[in-house]
Amino acid sequence: MIQHFSFKPLFENTKLPGWQIAFFYKHQRYEGEYKKDGSIIWSGSIPPNEATVKKMIHELMLYHVYD
Question: InterPro entries per the record (predicted)?
Fold first, then answer.
């Protein structure tokens, strides 16, 4: 389960897509860039079960950003 999920726009013009994301997964902090196509560029280590984590992040982004 993802905990303490946060995101912020990469650009001052918030209409441009791209977000910096951060969260905890299995007691480890992860960070990355979430692109408009749903891909993620990790800023460090890649979380275990990456496909599952990407799916959870995509659902959170759909709820918070694209709602």
Answer: UCP037692 (IPR017263)
